[in-house]
Each structure stands twice: as C-alpha cells, then as structure tokens.
Amino acid sequence: MNKTRMRTTPRQKTMGTPVQAKASMSLTELILVGVGGIVGAGFFLGCGAPIQSAGPSVLISFVIGALITAQVIGALNTVALDHPVEGAFKVYADMYLGRYVGYMQGWLYYLTSILTISSEAVASAIFVRVWLPSWPLWLLSSSFAALILLINAFGVRNFGLIESFMSVVKIAALVGFIVFVAIILFGWHAQTAVTGTHAATSGSGFFPHGAGGVFRSMLIVIFAYAGIGVFGTAAVELRHPKQLDVGGIWTVTILGLMYILSIGGILLVQPWRSVSTNVSPFVQALQHLHLTILADVFNAVILIASFSVMAGAVFSANQILSSLSHSGEAPSFTTRTLGKRQVQYGALIFTAIGLAIFIGLSYLLPSSVYNFLISASSFFTFFNWFIILMTFVSWRHRNESPGKNAHKHISRLTFGQPISTFITMAAIVFLAGYALTERDQRLGFYACLAISAILSIGYFFTHKYKSARVTDGYKRME
Predict the structure, then answer these.
(1) Percent of the residues in the chain that have a pLDDT greater than 90, as a whole number
(2) Residue 203: which CATH number?
(3) Average pLDDT over residues 324-342
(4) Distance CA 237, CA 20 (A)
C-alpha cells in the first residue's frame, strides 16, 4: 500500500476520522493535560516498589523510563502529524502493520485503561485507609470505581475544567513536596535530612541490589510513564499541530524532572529500606519528619487528584471501545447512547463488567492486589509501546523513497532514529523478560498471555463472521 492509497477517504472511514476544523487545544493545555494525565495515584503509591527493588539507583530507573517514553512519544507524534485522524495508534497499527495488529492494539489499549482504573481505585482505597484502617480494601476500591462510572454516566458541567484543575493539583503536590524537601535540606531540619541521606546509602551503596535491581524496578517505573495516550489525539485537537513535538518535549522533561527530584526527596528524608509499599512513600516521608498534618493534607490531595486519571481512563477506554465496535471488532451494543447528553451507556456497562472482573481477580489471586494490577497493566503497556515503535519504523521505511519529504517532520524526541528506535524496542523486550524474575510480576504476565490468547481467538471469529456477512451480501445482490 503506497502513501497515496493510505490517505484515501474510504480507507480513513474504516480506520479513523479525518481531521476536522475543531482544534481548540493550546500548547500549554497540551502540556498540562499530558503531565496531569500521566501522573496518577499509581505513582504516588507505586513508587515504593521500585525503591525497594533498586534502592537509591531507582533514580537511574526513572531516567531510563524518561528516555524510553521520549522515543515512544516521538514515534507516535511523527505518525500522528502525518495522519491526523481520530483513533490514533490503533488506526496507525491498522494502516502499517495489518488489521490483526490494529485489532490487538485497540483491545489491549482498552484493557490497559481498565487496569489503570482498577489500580487507581485500589490506590485510592489505600490512601483512605490511612484514616479508616478497619474498612475493607475491596469495598473502598469498588466504591471508587463505581463512583467514577457514575460521574461519567451522569456527567458534570465544565468537567474539562475540573480535570485541568485536578492536573494542576497533582503537579502542585509534587512540586510542593520537592520544594519542602529543599527547605528541609537548607533550613531548620537540615540535620534530619543529613541523617536520612546517610542512612539511605550506608552499608549498601548506590546499587544495593546491583544492576539487576534497576532492571527489576523498570516494570513499575514504566507504569508511572504509561499514560501517553493524549498525544495520539492531540494532532487533531491542537490549534497549531506543529507544536505537538514541542509539547512532547516539555511533557517528558517536566515528568522526568518531577519524578527524579521527588523520588530523590523521599530518599533524602528516610532510609530507602524503610520505604513502604502499603502506603504512599510521600505520606510516609512526611510522617517520618513528624509532620502529621501536612501528611494528611498531601494524602487528601492525591486522593482527590486520582479521580482525574480514572475519569480520563474511562473516557479513553469508551472511545477506543466505540472505535472497535464501529469496525465490527467489539459488541455492537457498546455504541448505544441514552438521553440528550448521548451517554454511552453500552460502553459504560461493558467497562463496569471489566472493572468488576479485574478488581475481583486481584483479590482472589495469591498476589499483592496492587502489584498484580500494575504489573499486568505494565506488560500491556510494553506491548502497546513496542507496536507504536514498530509502526514508526514501518512509516519511516515507506517514506524513504526519493522525492518524499516526510522525514523533515520526524519528531526530535526520536533522537538517534532509526538506531535508537531499535535499541528502545530491544530494551522493552529485555525489560519485559527480566521482570519475570519477580514472582508477583510473573502472575501479571501470565494473565496478559491468557487475555491475548482469548483476544486472538476473538479476532478469528470476529473477522470470520464479518467475511460471512460480506459474502451473504454479495449473494443477495446477485
């Protein structure tokens, strides 16, 4: 299929909607939504596990995570600018890698969104248990999941404004923590910080578990960078699409700095060996400094802010499910709407069932609830990112013909491509494999394999049924 063929109207109708003149997002809004949509309650709680795995060298893990994320966003931005259609990475995988890969990409992205909602609900429940320790975790997490579904079902006015506000709250919470630690370092609690810094590395060094600790921590670190879906649709939404690359650069830079500085702050105020995986390490660090009131405020802020990630994940999950349904790759009832607001009640019901299954399994399986959810989500993220990079490689290969000038639009985030692209793909495969050395992470991997097998079987029957319908249609025409 040549470039001209891929831009034809019939092909776009089957895989994505051509860009419309409805762009309204500014560069600042893109950066805000990008950073706010990626930083979730999962990071505020989940960073405890990689700290335990890697010790102080977890800082290197977050640098590696930022570099991998940059390559993936750069690949996605490059193809998105050349093909500004709604449907994003599923559409691009369909166009360049075939319908099966596009089908898998769409469904696995949907399931990643469901796992993200589930993990955020569990994280929120853990935050609440700081104040209500006797309440069952399953009841709290299920309640949060149900609440976010109700918010999407009934809607609230100016929800976009509320979402942006929540993004600002999360960013402010991290920046505030970093600033507060800096004040401690150079202010009235300097001796406490010095003691914590010494305890963080004494007797074990910067690599207490060697390079293996860094590699084992990467599965959870990638989860902290996973929410890059906004860049798949931003080419359609931006007032000035050429600013997409600038937005990606700023987003990755801000994310990387906030993650590294905030994790460094935790390591400076308490020994890494004492960092908990059952409560937020940020709250624990503030409690370690005997700042109980500030710890409660921080806990409340990240609890409220986690709703923005869940709300965004529900919305994107329903959108991709609707796209799959329109292409005949998901149940048709998921496109049904209700009322003047056109609430997608079919998709919401389907998503609610998925949430119930994943949250239920997470409590039945012999593994840490939270670790199971984020490890499964991270393996799906590895797959999605690998496919995005493969799509970019295919796009680049098809635009190598003399006279084509598409290469001038390649994102600067893909610095060193195509060699860096292949290195990143190899790194993803290696890190996914190395994660299997952890028992809890193996469980998430097995769940992903089982789900992928089920989806593959579903693809066979779905497309066999579609082919049969086409054949019957031709017979009736004759």
Answers:
(1) 15
(2) 1.20.1740.10
(3) 78
(4) 9
User: How many domains, in total, are found in the chain?
Assistant: 1
| CB-CB neighbours of 26 under 10 Å | 15
At 272, list the tokens. 């890494």
Residue 18 lies in a domain: no
Whether the CB-CB separation of 205 and 272 falls below 8 Å is answered with: no
pTM of the model: 0.84
100 is a domain residue: yes
C-alpha separations of 219 from 104, 318, 324, 383, 396 in Å:
21, 26, 28, 12, 28
DSSP assignments along 31-80, one per residue: HHHHHHHH--HHHHHHTHHHHHHHGGGHHHHHHHHHHHHHHHHHHHHHHH
Candidates 334, 338, 339, 369; CA nearest to 352 is 334
pLDDT of residue 12: 37
Residue 469 lies in a domain: no
Q: Using an 8 Å Cβ cutoff, are 346 and 336 in contact?
A: yes
At 317, list the tokens: 């999950």
Residue 95 in domain? yes
Q: Could you list the residue range(s) of the whole structural domain that residue 104 is in?
A: 23-400+417-461
Angle made by CA atoms 294, 299, 304, in degrees to the nearest 5: 130
Q: C-alpha distances in angstroms, 343 versus 311, 313, 350, 369, 370?
A: 14, 16, 13, 31, 30
What CA–CA distance (Å, rounded) separates 67 from 69? 5
